[in-house]
Design brief:
The protein is mainly beta. Helix content is 0%, strand content 47%. The strands form four sheets. Strands 7, 9, 10, 12, 15 and 17 form a six-stranded antiparallel sheet that branches. Strands 8-11-16-13-14 form a five-stranded antiparallel sheet, with no helix packed on it. A three-stranded antiparallel sheet has the order 1-4-3, with no helix packed on it. The two termini are 21 Å apart. This is Ig domain-containing protein.
């Protein structure tokens, strides 16, 4: 592990110190270089680095650090969504209209029988959502899902899309005219939400013409 700290202002040179570093990792008091081979597992631990100038004035900076062995699996890891392929219908999901169904034809599921189709138009948009716990002690949490764009009127325009919000924050945007044909898998990194309960909101939206749907299936929120 090598991290070079820098500072500006005050009267150089600076004297560096740090707390919260993993065992066998140190900071060089003169150069601010953090280095060493860590021998301790840490998940989202806080490191505090201080720089003091020649007149005794100091400042601090904090960052989070995760150190795990290459073969790490987290004790509370695994798949965290309920009914991720909709095969129990709407169980575990909230929807604003009849989005989750045994869709057929162009809207048919990727696997099983059920899928969710989000109509992307100007009527306020279709929504499905689920609340999930992202485990605190896992280093990586990844949301994956399969999505297919379906131009219901045969025409694709620039305006139809799907958005993923976590709580109220937009984190992922999928524009229909970039999705090609057929199902493709998409990945969203949720590692920075470790320790949080999040509400995933998938919303379809678009304009009033060339109406389309985005079909979703086979979700997974894997933590490790
Ligand atoms: Ca399914
Ligand atoms: Ca449209």
């Amino acid at each position: 592990m090598i991290i070079q700290m820098t500072a500006k202002g005050g009267t150089a040179p600076y004297t560096w110190s740090a707390t919260g570093l993993p065992t066998d990792v140190t900071i060089n008091a003169t150069t601010g270089l953090i280095s060493g081979t860590p021998t301790q597992t840490l998940i989202n631990a806080t490191v505090t680095v201080s720089a003091k100038d020649t007149t005794g004035r100091s400042t601090q900076s904090r960052f989070e650090i995760t150190v795990v062995p290459p073969d790490w699996t987290c004790p509370s890891g695994g798949q965290k969504l309920v009914n991720p392929g909709f095969e129990s219908g709407g169980t575990g999901w909230w929807e604003n209209t009849d989005n989750i169904n045994r869709h057929t034809g162009a809207l048919a599921r990727r696997t099983g029988t059920w899928a969710a189709a989000l109509r992307a138009d100007s009527a306020g948009g279709a929504i499905i959502s689920q609340r999930a716990q992202v485990p605190r002690e896992c280093a990586w949490s990844t949301l994956t899902f399969w999505a297919k764009f379906v131009p219901l009127q045969g025409v694709t325009d620039d305006n139809d899309a799907m958005r993923l919000l976590l709580n109220d924050e937009p984190v992922f945007f999928l524009k229909g005219n970039t999705m090609g044909t057929g199902y493709r898998q998409y990945t969203v990194d949720l590692s920075r939400y470790a320790g949080q309960t999040v509400i995933l909101w998938f919303t379809g939206w678009g304009d009033y013409k060339n109406i389309s749907s985005i079909v979703l299936d086979d979700f997974a929120l894997n933590a490790r």
